Amino acid sequence: MEQTRIVITGVGLTSPNGNCLETYRKQLLEGVSGVQTIDMRYIGKVSAGICDFDPKKYQKRKELRVGTRAGSIAIYCAREAVANSGLDFAAMDKNRIGVYVGTTEHGNVETENEVYNISKFDYDTRYWTHHHNPRTVANNPAGEITINMGITGPHYTIGAACAAGNAGLVQAVQMLRLREVDCALAGGVSESVQTFGIFAGFKSQGALADHTDPEKASRPFDRGRNGIVVSEGGAIYTLERLEDAQARGAHILGEIIGYCINSDASDYVLPNPVRQAECMRAAIAQAGLEPGDIDIVNTHATSTPQGDIQECKAIAEVFADCPTTYVNNTKSFIGHAMGAAGALELAGNLPAFDDNVVHPTINIDELDPECELPNLVVNQPHKVDAVELILNNSFGMLGINSALIVRKFTK
Questions:
Q1: Among 51, 56, 63, which Cα is nearest to 134's?
Q2: What is the DSSP letter of 411?
Q3: How far apart are alpha carbons 177 and 259 in whole angstroms?
Q4: Euclidean distance between CA atoms 381 and 379, whole angstroms
Q5: Better pLDDT: 3 or 183
Q6: Are 232 and 191 in contact (CB under 8 A)?
Q7: Helix, strand, or coil here: 316?
Q8: Chain-centre distance of CA 26, in angstroms?
Q9: Closest Cα partner for 115 from 135, 140, 138, 132?
Q10: Which of 106, 336, 359, 371 does the annotation list as catalytic?
Q11: Is 3.40.47.10 the CATH classification of the domain at 6-247?
């Protein structure tokens, strides 16, 4: 039985190097990093990716006081995705819109801030905010979208570690195919730069990037890489069934044709290249393709010494003898946006369907021999004859793997 076809008709994003797809893509092609140095409570100066979108574009001051940074990112991206799609949102049945937002963690920053605040008052809990519980519940980012936009259909915030952005899109595809909703806003968001616990955890693990130049701190595949640059950001997509999008004459940015989510079941942190390879192969098979059909593989590689090697092993195994498959990495520009990573990185590659350019991995001064991959695009963009198929890798702690395949829409 032929699957219902699901297409992307809009994208809204905020990233450390751009607040719309056009700017973001331009920065990727020009090699512009969005990483900077910030002061983190208890830790000091660290490299991080910070977004500079205007939250007041879609929220009032009171809403910003009550809500969360992750919620503001989600609202901004969702509103931009709807605007980009050309939907007549006011005329839509809000019961038939679903919101599916992936995130790595949520609530840590709010709890940390409250503990810090009451420490100034001898830990008197009378000074603990009554907004804390709705700020920290797991469904918060997706829920904030529904409140802001008046959406009365289902909403989920999906916890899938750093595979969450892809997972949000997968959930939307499934719900559209089940006809539970007629339109979906889906993707991922992250507020991780707001919490010192994330930085402290990676630092104690020996996995926090350290470099005198913050713009060079995120350096996947480079021999001198030494850890993750923590970033915030978000990317939300408008997804529709093909027949609905065509009926309203929508501009279609791409079609989601395959995906897989699986588990390593082997380690809390260390990736398993065998399971990662299985994930990619399963997504390719679901799409009815062969590995050599893929034009761009966007890697998850986070700039950790061992993690990058493990993924390279998986990619080398799956894409052996694929001379027209090119490999790149987006975290080298923006750092690791955690729950938003997969969705943001896919967005950075989508314009390749139109311009036929593979954006590079930057900050590779000396390629690690264990990360050598055929057709790894290094430091400069690479023009190709055509881009028809993108495979987006996104992996996370506790061994969750995801691969999503998007095809250029022609008919």
A1: 63
A2: -
A3: 14
A4: 7
A5: 183
A6: yes
A7: helix
A8: 18
A9: 132
A10: 336
A11: yes
**Other C-beta atoms within 10 Å of 45: how many?**
10
Class of 257-407 in CATH: alpha beta
User: Six-digit token pair at 200?
Assistant: 């402290």
Per-residue pLDDT tens digits for 88-143: 999 999 999 999 999 998 888 899 999 999 999 999 999 999 999 999 999 999 99
How many residues make up the chain in this entry? 411
Q: Does residue 106 carry a catalytic annotation?
A: no
DSSP per residue, 123-138: T-GGGS-TTHHHHHST
User: Token pair of 193, please?
Assistant: 């730069």
Reduced to 3 DSSP states, what percent helix, strand and coil does the chain have, rounded to the nearest 5? Answer: 40, 25, 35
Asked whether the beta carbons of 251 and 9 are under 8 A apart, the reply is yes
> Residue 342: pLDDT above 90?
yes
Task: List the domain boundaries for the chain.
Answer: 6-247, 257-407
Q: The tokens of 410 are what?
A: 């022609």
φ and ψ at residue 370, rounded to 5 degrees: -80, -5
Amino acid residing at 1: M
130 part of the active site: no
**Which residues are CB-contacts of 258 (< 8 A; sequence separation ≥ 6)?**
283, 284, 285, 286, 287, 288, 289, 403, 404, 405
Contact between 198 and 177 under an 8 Å Cβ cutoff? The reply is no
Tell me which H or E stretch contains 354: helix 352-355
Residue 288 CB neighbour total at 10 angstroms: 10
**H helix and E strand count, the chain:** 14, 15
Assess whether 300 carries a catalytic annotation.
yes
State the catalytic residue, choosing from 77, 162, 260, 312: 162
pLDDT at 243: 97
Answer whether 6-247 and 257-407 agree in fold.
yes
Q: Is the pTM of this model over 0.90?
A: yes
Q: Catalytic pick from 77, 300, 322, 359?
A: 300
Query: What's the longest Cα–Cα distance across the chain?
Result: 65
CA 367 to chain CA centroid, Å, is 25
Q: Are strands 389-396 and 296-299 parallel, antiparallel or unpaired?
A: parallel
Using only C-alpha atoms, what is the Rg of the chain?
Answer: 20
Vertex 92: Cα angle to 91 and 95 (nearest 5): 140
Token pair belonging to 74 = 């989600």
Handedness of CA 396, 49, 314, 286 (dihedral sign): positive
pLDDT at 1: 61
The single residue listed with the structure tokens 């713009």 is 215
